[in-house]
Amino acid sequence: MGQLVHTLPEGERVCGVTLLAGEIYLVRCKERDQVEVYDVITYLLQRRLTVPDAPHFTVPDAGWFTDMTSCEHNRCVYIGANYAKRVHRLDVQGAVTRWAVNDSPEGLSVNAAHNVLVTCPDVRKIKEFCSHGDLLRELTLPDDVIHPWHSIQTRSGQFIVCHGDLSNPVQRVCMISADGRHIVHSHGGQRGSDTDQYDGPYHLAVDDNEFVFVADYYNRRVALLSPTLEYVRQVVSCDQLKGDPEYLYLDTRQRLLYVAGNDLEEGEWRGYAAVFSV
């Protein structure tokens, strides 16, 4: 089981967590200063950054930020926003650009070519963009991969995809061929709480040996799978989390897993982020 190392301050709803250039980036749903930047050693707040043209969080159903990822090569973070079907690019100096996805984005990741993978659940697609937003390719996932949340490309070119929401009886983590057409391995099946089941497999992280961490949202836990998607163990339990886990980031050098999510308290969402040694 992972050991809790630190907990960042609670606040507005969290919409993603990542690391860049020795700092922790946390994005929240609010009107201004949406991105909080913390020192990776002391965990002290360094600064806040504003994303222009952010969602109108005070307007019901206006939409949210959906995820955040980073690229050390291009020295920037990417933030998905489903309200306008776009991705924001925020560099380390604070400059912001954006580009259209043309479908509602959910999970984001960066592959070995330093390109951005955007998972679009409504159309069951993975879209690959260069760092400045040029669309490089689209992959349509197999028919039985319904409502994909997040995708990560392995060094061999295959994709690890988690899929399934409350309306879908089948909820799994799948390894999909590099062309997006075939399921190579899978873990999960009927929705449930056993070790071979999920209830909202929402977000992924993959280590250097291609072991897979899975945020199991409604079961409020994080599971570890082998490179062929066999169950290994639970790494974070319900008792260790403040709320439902929605976002993961793995610091592979330090073996630290960042788990972020939200908890509903008296009708209001409260965001948290915790750091675990794994």
SSE order and pairing:
Layout lengths: L2 E5 L6 E7 L2 E6 L6 E5 L5 E5 L15 E7 L4 E6 L4 E6 L4 E5 L7 E3 L5 E5 L4 E5 L5 E6 L7 E6 L5 E5 L6 E7 L6 E8 L10 E6 L5 E5 L4 E5 L5 E6 L7 E8 L4 E10 L2 E10 L1
Antiparallel strand pairs: 1-24, 2-3, 3-4, 4-5, 6-7, 7-8, 8-9, 10-11, 11-12, 12-13, 14-15, 15-16, 16-17, 18-19, 19-20, 20-21, 22-23, 23-24
Name of the CATH architecture:
6 Propeller
Mind describing the biggest β-sheet? 4 strands, antiparallel
CATH superfamily: TolB, C-terminal domain
Low-confidence stretches: none
Q: What is the arithmetic mean of pLDDT?
A: 93
Percent helix: under 10%
What is the H/E string?
Answer: EEEEEEEEEEEEEEEEEEEEEEEE
Shape: globular
How many beta strands in the DSSP annotation? 24
CATH class value: Mainly Beta
Please identify the structural class as seen in this structure: mainly beta
Strand order within the widest beta sheet = 1-24-23-22
Number of helices in the DSSP assignment: 0
Number of domains: 1
CATH topology annotation = Neuraminidase
Distance between the termini: 7 Å
Percent range for β-strand residues: over 45%
Radius of gyration: 17 Å
